[in-house]
C-alpha cells in the first residue's frame, strides 16, 4: 500500500480514500472512520474494540415508555363523524386512507400509514368528508399506532352503528419495523 513511503489512495464515489478507511466504512460508523483517517485513533484499536464480547449484565433502568405514553391521545376530543341514511341492505363499504399521518407520543417523530375502514352498514353510512376531517385531527396528535386503529374503530361504530366493522392500519417502517394493526367489531367477548 505504500509507494515511496506515501500511502496509496483509492478513488471511491468521487473522493480519494485510504483503502483501510474504505474497509471501515462498510463495518463501522463514519465517525470512527474519520478518526482513523485523521490518525486520531489507530486502525488496530478499532478492530480490537469491535471484536470484544458484549456485556451480559442485565439492564436495570427505568422503563422508557410510561402509562402517560400509552394513554396519549385517547382523551382527545375528536369531532363527531356525520352519517346519512342507508338506502340498501347487505353490502360492504371500504374506505381507504392512503396518506394517514400521526405522531409518536414518545419521540415526536411522524408516523405514516394506510388506514382501511371496512364496514357493513345497518341504518347509517359514514359521510366521507366528515370522516376525512375526523382523520385529519390525528395529523399532529401524539398517539400510538395500536391506539389509533382501536379509537377509529370505536368512533366509526359509535357514529354508524354498523352490522360489522374492521379497521386496519398498515404503518410504514420506522427504525426498521413496520406495523399492521387490525381491530374488529363486534369485539370478541372476554373469557372470564
Mean pLDDT: 81
Rg measurement, Å? 27 Å
Work out the number of β strands. 10
Q: Which stretches of 5+ consecutive residues score pLDDT under 50? A: 43-52
What's the number of helices? Answer: 6
Strand arrangement in the largest pleated sheet: 6-7-9-10
Portion of residues in beta strands equals 25-35%
The chain-level structural class is alpha+beta
Give the N-to-C terminal Cα separation. 73 Å
Shape: elongated
Give me the strand/helix succession. EEEEHHHHEEEEHHEE
Largest sheet: 4 strands, antiparallel
Residues in helix, %: 25-40%
Write up what this structure looks like:
The protein has 192 residues and is of the alpha+beta class. The chain has helices at 19-27, 30-37, 43-50, 67-71, 128-136, 145-160; strands at 2-3, 6-7, 10-12, 15-17, 83-85, 93-103, 110-120, 124-126, 164-174, 177-185. The strands form four sheets. The chain has a four-stranded antiparallel beta sheet with strand order 6-7-9-10, with helices on one face. Strands 1-2 form a two-stranded antiparallel ribbon. Helix 1 packs antiparallel against helix 2 (30-37).
Short description:
The protein is built from six helices and ten strands. With 192 residues, it is an alpha+beta fold. The strands form four sheets. A four-stranded antiparallel beta sheet has the order 6-7-9-10, covered by helices on one side. A two-stranded antiparallel ribbon has the order 1-2. A two-stranded antiparallel sheet has the order 3-4.
Give keywords.
192 residues, 4-stranded antiparallel sheet, alpha+beta, two-stranded antiparallel ribbon
